[in-house]
């Protein structure tokens, strides 16, 4: 790939960045650069060896420490006389990094560059991105954005080397015969559903009594029940203690309660960690919390004024649309002269389990905590399309669950009365939202009142 012509860098440097690398045995980094509005994105070849990349990043960011003190922290228009190669240099071409660079360049005419890891399907310290080449130069930028995301993390138990994570699970050459999945979050359940669908024998081990911590109790029960009906085996209140491999290659998982054997695969979906190792951020004064997440203010600015961070690396709300929102906000803050906070209210989430579930707004516990007395409306029904199929599926519908239309309604602050006065489309699943007349139960802070209203609700059924 031919090198794109870089704008000539002026002398003073706020942030020296990334690309000085001695060895180029293996092409590693891809740098997309876009110069000025209308010129499009230019791939910029760089080169580094896998071994040198960590050091290279460390060195580059170290340089930025001494130079950023005088960085431009205001959302003021950039000087006509440019002193940097780039207005924004982003580390990480994932959801957040690409969005910030695109918005900065397309909306505000900023000169934006993105640096990415070499391609690999399973992420490591030196591999895992979209791939590319490195040219060994040193670049300067007025602002650096760290958007390196996170990586699966596994507990350090005996035999952990036999265990796969979600990256490796997506890279399996064939279907597992029998798989243990450790974890009760959405990644664990989604993979359990995929492998169950492929007719693997799927065992899910969870530390708690229920899956999907943070979701409503009824949703948690409902998903576990439905997945069990489809053949997934849940082992509850179990923590993994060791994995052993027998001579025939099969794996056993030992927990605090039992040992289950005969697994062709053991997968851990036990959380993710911010990808901040080996970046040298601590050397330049970027604060991180005890989990390695970059600490940022409400504008996603780190403790170093000209270094910003968005997405999973900040461990706020680890979802793609949230990373996109944070990225758009920083582009506006830096280049739009419009300091913009990301808005975390009514962020929806979905789990692509069988059946899929969605959630927006407060859980029942949070609603009770916030408002005291609340009425709960639940609709259990079987969609017409499934009445003849014999599948166990049915949809359970809470006022605070489901689909984009509901998310918009919640965000806009619509009330139950607005739902009640809406004419539904028949025959659709969605009409259930506007036909829930009687509360299934009423939760009251005063427990005597709650007991009474539960009886009332039951008698209204
Ligand atoms: C299995 C799984 C399923 C998910 N499903 C959903 C879902 O259904 N819906 C949803 O909203 N979210 C989902 N998420 C979460 C979502 O993927 C993340 O929240 C989102 O990608 C975060 O964006 P990001 O920009 O912070 O990081 P990422 O998109 O992960 O991008 C980070 C990038 O930085 C690169 N990088 C890392 N280190 C370096 C370095 N040193 N130098 C250069 N580049 C580097 C990486 O290669 C990567 O390309 C899922 C996550 C997983 C793991």
Automatic annotation (TrEMBL):
Span of domain FAD/NAD(P)-binding: 134-327
One cellular component (GO) term of this entry: mitochondrion
Keyword terms: Disulfide bond, FAD, Flavoprotein, NADP, Oxidoreductase, Redox-active center
Record field: compositional bias (Basic and acidic residues): 445-461
EC number(s) per entry: 1.8.1.7
InterPro entries: FAD/NAD-bd_sf, FAD/NAD-binding_dom, FAD/NAD-linked_Rdtase_dimer_sf, GSHR/TRXR-like, Pyr_nucl-diS_OxRdtase_dimer
GO terms of molecular function: flavin adenine dinucleotide binding; glutathione-disulfide reductase (NADPH) activity
Required co-factors: FAD
Group of enzyme by EC: oxidoreductase
Signal sequence coordinates: none
Reaction catalysed by this enzyme: 2 glutathione + NADP(+) = glutathione disulfide + NADPH + H(+)
One Gene Ontology biological process: glutathione metabolic process
Stretches for region Disordered: 438-461
Limits of the Pyridine nucleotide-disulphide oxidoreductase dimerisation domain: 347-387, 403-436
Protein family: Belongs to the class-I pyridine nucleotide-disulfide oxidoreductase family.
Subunit structure: Homodimer.
UniProt protein name: glutathione-disulfide reductase
Lineage, top ranks: Eukaryota, Viridiplantae, Streptophyta, Embryophyta, Tracheophyta
């Amino acid at each position: 790939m031919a090198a794109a012509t870089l704008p000539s860098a002026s002398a003073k440097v706020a942030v020296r960045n990334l690309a000085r690398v001695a060895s180029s045995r293996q092409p590693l980094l891809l740098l997309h650069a876009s110069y000025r509005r209308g010129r499009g994105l230019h791939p910029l070849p760089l080169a580094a060896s896998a071994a040198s990349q960590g050091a290279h990043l460390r060195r580059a960011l170290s340089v930025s420490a001494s130079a950023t003190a005088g960085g431009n922290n205001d959302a003021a228009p950039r000087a006509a006389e440019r002193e940097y190669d780039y207005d924004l240099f982003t580390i990480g071409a994932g959801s957040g990094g690409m969005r910030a660079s695109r918005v900065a360049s397309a909306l505000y005419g900023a000169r934006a560059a993105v640096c990415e890891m070499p391609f690999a399907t399973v992420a490591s310290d030196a591999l895992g991105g979209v791939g590319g080449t490195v040219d060994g130069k040193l670049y300067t930028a007025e602002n650096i954005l760290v958007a390196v995301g996170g990586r699966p993390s596994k507990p350090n138990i005996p035999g952990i080397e036999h265990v796969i994570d979600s990256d490796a699970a997506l890279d399996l050459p064939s279907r597992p015969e029998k798989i243990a999945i450790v974890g009760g979050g959405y990644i664990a359940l989604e993979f359990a559903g995929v492998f169950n669908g492929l007719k693997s024998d799927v065992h899910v081990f969870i530390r708690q009594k229920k899956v999907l911590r943070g979701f409503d109790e009824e949703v948690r029960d409902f998903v576990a029940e439905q997945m069990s009906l489809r053949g997934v085996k849940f082992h509850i209140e179990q923590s993994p203690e060791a994995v052993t491999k027998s001579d025939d290659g099969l794996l056993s998982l030992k927990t605090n309660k039992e040992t289950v054997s005969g697994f062709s695969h053991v997968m851990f979906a036990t959380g993710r960690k911010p990808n901040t190792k080996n970046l040298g951020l601590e050397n330049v004064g970027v604060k991180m919390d005890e989990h390695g997440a970059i600490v940022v203010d409400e504008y996603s600015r780190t403790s170093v004024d000209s270094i910003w961070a968005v997405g999973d690396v900040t461990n706020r709300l680890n979802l793609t649309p949230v990373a996109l929102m944070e990225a758009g906000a920083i582009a506006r803050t830096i280049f739009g002269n419009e300091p913009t906070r990301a808005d975390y209210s009514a962020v929806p989430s979905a789990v692509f389990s069988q059946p899929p579930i969605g959630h927006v707004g407060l859980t029942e516990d949070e609603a009770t905590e916030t408002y005291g007395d609340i009425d709960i409306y639940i609709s259990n029904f079987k969609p017409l399309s499934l009445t003849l199929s014999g599948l166990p599926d049915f949809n359970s519908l809470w006022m605070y669950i489901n689909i984009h239309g509901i998310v918009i309604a919640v965000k806009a602050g619509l009330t139950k009365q607005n739902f009640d006065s809406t004419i539904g489309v028949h025959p659709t699943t969605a009409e259930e939202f506007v036909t829930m007349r009687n509360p299934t139960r009423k939760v009251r802070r005063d427990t005597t009142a709650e007991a009474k209203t539960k009886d009332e609700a039951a008698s209204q059924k």
